[in-house]
Amino acid sequence: MSELSGTFLEKSTIKAADLEHRRKINFNIGKYNAVVPQGKSQFSDVHLARERAKNVKWKAIETLDQQLESFEAAITKRGAKVIWAENGEQANAEILKICKEKMCRVIVKSKSMVTEEIHLNDFLEKNRIESVETDLGEYIQQLDGEPPYHIVTPAMHKSKEDVARLFTDKLGTDPKLTPEQLTLVAREKLREKYVQAEIGITGANFIIADIGGIAVTENEGNGRLSCSMPKTHIVVVGIEKVIPSMTDLALFWPLLATYGTGQRITVYNTIVTGPKQEGEFDGPEEMYVILLDNGRTNILANEKARESLYCIRCGACLNACPVYKNIGGHTYATAYSGPIGAVITPQLKQMKDWKHLSYASSLCGNCTEVCAVKINLHELLLENRHEAVEEGDSAFAEKIAWKMWKQGMLRRSWMNMANGNTKGWLINTLMTGWKKHRGELDFPKLSFNEQWRKKNKQ
Ligand code: SF4
Question: How far is CA 108 from CA 56, 98, 231, 276, in A?
């Protein structure tokens, strides 16, 4: 068992027994479940909408090179600079280079999972640049020194009392403040940062190939401020976020809103096609788009796993997953948690180190059932397991166990050899991992085969 896998098991065991954690998660996911049907009601046929979205993403991913080149050509014409980064280190180094050029000390940042993936905030802090999260949930997490817990709702595991306590500890506010008052405190603090920041960093929900734009979806207006107030705007985005045309947003915006938060449409939807143009008064003077690979082309090359690149990060599969709801987002120890995280993390990183995430599933198929773009998530989890075995990444004990099982299955006489107490003793002694959280297995004295024969003889 790898160190990561061992830590994952330990943390999961603790979290799964934490009833207060479960109560908070169930409460927050319950609120999500209550509103999603309202969002869905805007579609005359929501299954067809999801199917169409899947087809659009299929086309985008199958022609990824052309789509990205078209994006680059169009946005470059409007004065933006496109940087291709093979990995997180390259992306961070490019950002630092821009920061040095602009003599930047403060950055305002809107919510972006891809910057979590490359650990941008830690990197900037080491280089003495203050990077302030401006999404309220992310701001709360940053105050608490924690990474986001969920890809859409970063502070989902915190109650309003937890947030009030945190603000008192870190900002000295009255512990009795209401959520509205706490929001105003955060707003006041953040407004100052917008004035100080030399650079704004955002992610992008979509890269729009035909017009050369990026689309940012958010509910607080902080994303729009982050890309328009500072003099320089940097976008960091994974290359798989591409859609072929701006008209595709008519489908993707409502779909993302519905499956992400149960809204019909998210409050702020912004399309940015470059820096401020001649004669325009608002917007940044310079814009950079960092197109990040960081393992995505490995997924592209893998015919079966490729489908996972269709993901629009709506978070619905996390909310539906019985494992996620019990062990929580931080236990995964990676930027992307839940079913989609369990599918892509072993592919983006090392299969041998991260394959345990693909085993953290009951394979109930609920994730596939709710996925906004109909990714066959539970089948991809099985594919990862298959790949791990093919690569020889499974443990020695597991290999031996399966060999023995196969031999037993191929021989009826072996299967019948030791029933009742003997088989029970053998299995219960060998399978210590199974017994840890379950009762002992109890085998009948005769196997089904023996009982059948006996019955027919009579
Ligand atoms: S895999 Fe599907 S459900 Fe999960 S975050 Fe991505 S689009 Fe949403």
Answer: 33, 14, 11, 18
In this structure, are 283 and 406 located in the same domain?
Answer: no
Give the integer Cα–Cα distance in Å for 437 and 427: 15
- Name the domain boundary from 261, 294, 327: 294
**pLDDT tens, residue by residue, 1-44:** 678 999 999 999 999 999 999 999 999 999 999 999 999 999 99
pLDDT of amino acid 331: 97
pTM: 0.91
In short, whether 309's Cβ falls inside 6 Å of ligand 1 is no
User: Do residues 380 and 308 lie in contact, with contact meaning Cβ atoms separated by under 8 Å?
Assistant: yes
Give distance in angstroms: CA of 311 to centre of ligand 1: 5
Residue 385 above 70 pLDDT?
yes
Q: Which domain holds residue 449?
A: 396-457
Q: Count of domains in the chain?
A: 2
Encoded tokens for 122: 């830690």
Element (H, E) at 243: strand 242-243
List pLDDT tens digits, range 142-182: 999 999 999 999 999 999 999 999 999 999 999 999 999 99
pLDDT tens for 177-236 read: 999 999 999 999 999 999 999 999 999 999 999 999 999 999 999 999 999 999 999 999
- Whether residues 61 and 203 share a domain: the answer is yes
One domain, residues 107 and 218: yes
pLDDT at 122: 97
Q: Look-up: residue for tokens 């390259």?
A: 90
CATH code of the domain covering residue 154: 3.40.50.10420
Instruction: Report whether pLDDT(418) > 70.
Output: no
Residues 289, 401, single domain; the answer is no
In a domain, 338, yes or no: no
Place of tokens 């061992």: 6
Sequence-distant (6+) residues with CB within 8 A of 153 are 28, 32, 137, 315
The residue whose CB lies within 8 Å of the most ligand 1 atoms, and thus the one to mutate among 345, 375, 376, 384, is 375
Q: Are residues 265 and 153 in the same domain?
A: yes
| Overall size of the chain counted in residues | 458
Q: Decide whether any atom of ligand 1 lies within 6 Å of the 372 Cβ.
A: yes
pLDDT of residue 409: 85
Q: Residue 108 domain-assigned? A: yes
373 touches ligand 1 (CB under 6 Å): yes
171 in any annotated domain: yes
